[in-house]
């Protein structure tokens, strides 16, 4: 089993590709990509721009989104990805948002893994309460329960959530990119399996990070009491 997991999780360096940036040609596209510059270099934004349908998932929208993600996945210069909306008042709304698992109020059962993932996040008792009652929660209530990481008061421009996301991206940006990537992989794959398999996945990811230049740089910077300079290798 460990050999199979190792094969599935083996990390391979990506080829250097041209960074993505928005251009006038992209103006009419439902999905637009913009690479930030200066101190924010390494952060890329995906702008959802379908105002006529309030960013509803249509064939063109989804096709362009998958195309953008496929290209960004192969770009080693992209360290953090932010999804934002070009439609005011639609994704995201910040602390004024209302959310809930309201399927039972319509005679339905939560789908898309709702009955499996929510208990893992919140515990069985609280997950049952939210699903059985169909209760709607404010952004602040959702944050208090751990359903969302952050809830911020809306600003006049309607983009308070974006600014919080950008600040979070700026915190992630200086960290070792391979370690972040493998940490994400260990969490995403590990949460889907039992604890023993999850620990095996974590061990495989940890082992892949050991020989990287970034790990050696991080240790050297710690000894020398300086800020590390990670290169993603």
Sum this structure up briefly.
This protein is 44% helix and 9% strand.
Q: Kindly state the mean pLDDT as a whole number?
A: 81
Counting DSSP H or I runs of 4 or more residues, the number of helices is 9
The ordered H/E elements are HEEHEEHHEHHHHH
Shape, per Cα inertia axes: globular
How much of the residues is beta strand, in percent? 5-15%
The first-to-last residue Cα distance is 28 Å
Strand order, main sheet: write it out: 1-2-3
Largest sheet composition: 3 strands, mixed
- What's the β-strand tally? 5
Class derived from helix and strand content: mainly alpha
- Per the CATH scheme, the topology name of one domain is GMP Synthetase, Chain A, domain 3
Q: Helix amount, in percent?
A: 40-55%
- The CATH class of one domain is identified as Alpha Beta
- Poorly predicted regions are 1-20
The CATH architecture of one domain comes to 2-Layer Sandwich
Radius of gyration (CA) equals 20 Å
Family: Belongs to the enoyl-CoA hydratase/isomerase family.
InterPro entries: ClpP/crotonase-like_dom_sf, Enoyl-CoA_hydra/iso, Enoyl-CoA_hydra_C
Pfam families: ECH_1 (PF00378)
GO molecular function: enoyl-CoA hydratase activity
Q: How would you describe the overall organization of this protein?
A:
There is one protein chain. The protein has 233 residues and is mainly alpha-helical. Among the domains are: 14-90, 2-Layer Sandwich (GMP Synthetase, Chain A, domain 3); 176-224, Lyase 2-enoyl-coa Hydratase, Chain  A, domain 2, CATH 1.10.12.10. It is 44% helix and 9% strand. The chain has helices at residues 2-9, 59-73, 114-122, 124-133, 139-145, 160-172, 177-190, 195-209, 213-224, and strands spanning 31-35, 43-48, 80-85, 98-99, 137-138. The strands form 2 sheets. Strands 1-2-3 form a 3-stranded mixed β-sheet. Strands 4-5 form a two-stranded antiparallel ribbon. Helix 1 packs across helix 8, helix 3 packs across helix 4 and helix 7 packs antiparallel against helix 8. Residues 1-20 have low confidence and may be disordered.
């Amino acid at each position: 089993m460990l050999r199979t997991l190792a094969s599935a999780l083996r990390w391979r360096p990506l080829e250097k590709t041209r960074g993505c940036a928005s251009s006038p040609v992209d103006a009419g596209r439902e999905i637009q990509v913009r690479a930030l510059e200066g101190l924010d270099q390494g952060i890329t934004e995906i702008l959802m721009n379908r105002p006529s349908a309030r960013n509803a998932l249509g064939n063109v929208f989804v096709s362009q989104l998958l195309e953008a993600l496929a290209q960004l996945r192969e770009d080693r210069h992209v360290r953090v990805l932010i999804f934002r909306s070009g439609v005011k008042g639609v994704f995201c709304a910040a602390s004024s948002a209302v959310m809930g698992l309201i399927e039972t109020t319509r005679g339905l059962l939560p789908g898309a893994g709702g009955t499996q993932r929510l208990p893992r996040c919140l515990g069985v008792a609280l997950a049952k309460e939210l699903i059985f009652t169909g209760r709607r929660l404010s952004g602040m209530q959702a944050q208090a329960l751990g359903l969302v990481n952050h809830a911020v008061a809306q600003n006049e421009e309607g983009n308070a959530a974006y600014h919080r996301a950008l600040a979070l991206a700026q915190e992630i940006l200086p960290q070792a990119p391979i370690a972040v990537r493998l940490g994400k992989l260990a969490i995403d794959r590990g949460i889907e399996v039992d604890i023993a398999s999850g620990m095996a996945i974590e061990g495989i990811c940890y082992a892949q990070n050991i020989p990287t230049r970034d790990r050696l740089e991080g240790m050297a910077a710690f000894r020398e009491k300086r800020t590390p300079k990670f290169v993603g290798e």
